[in-house]
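Thread title: Can someone regenerate the structure for this chain?

I was given the following input by a collaborator and told the matching structure tokens would be attached. They weren't. Posting the sequence so someone can regenerate them.
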Amino acid sequence: MVWYKDIKGIHLHVNDAFCTAVSKRKKDVEGKDHYYIWGIPREVYEASDYVCVETEEDVINARKTCLYDEEVMSAQGLRKLKTYKTPIFDEDSQDIIGTVGIARDVTQEKEYRSTIQRLTREDQLTSLLNREYFYDVLKQNDRQAYTLLSFDVEGFHGFNERYGHPLGDAVLQIVAEELRLAFTTNHVARLGGDEFAVFLPDALSDEAAEASVRAFQEQLAFMLSMDDRMKHLRVNAGIVHAVPGMTPERVIRDGGRALDRAKEVGGGACCSSGESVMA
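Best answer:
Regenerated them for you:
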């Protein structure tokens, strides 16, 4: 898309790609302002996140070419643009008499990039973080103290064999959703199989961590109780208090050990690394 505006923001010339984007004929575009061309009332524009007009003013004030990421509402819906805008100077006075814009529609490109990024980070079944990306989260935070919660579904293997994988997958999805709701963090992961983990950026006490685990377990038990086949399932938990300098491997290993101790008791037990089992 290419366009030329005068200093008042009136489009003097546009190319065919611009006309396609706004779904208007060239004769209906040239001589009109931004609001008319894009079909956005001024009051709607001013209450929105659109920045096209503001960036025109920035370019004029900067007196040089600028690059922007912009959003416009086109005939094809909301489009994301990578836009170059440059001032046009009067040859004699060097006053700015208008601007030229060149834009490339990167909507699909950004959507593809977002999808690829999501797929490399997420577990496909639950949409939680996957094991690899969760390790990266722990590594990025290894200079601070934090709390790691580990979970597994007791008796899940036998449940899968008895009722089949579709129902087993439903259980994992319910656990994932309740973890998302219970913990106000974006860092909830499925480590594999029926194992889950939660990264909490605060160094919680055993009491605070256990209280959050118990609240989750109770709500999950309530949700599972709605299906007679699921109502006997329980989730055991392990708590690790990571200190600065602990590697992700060490934290995950300690979490696994705490979880193993909880599994020895079973029935929805909770164990903190270095502490006794809390059944």
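Confidence is low (pLDDT under 50) at residues 275-279.
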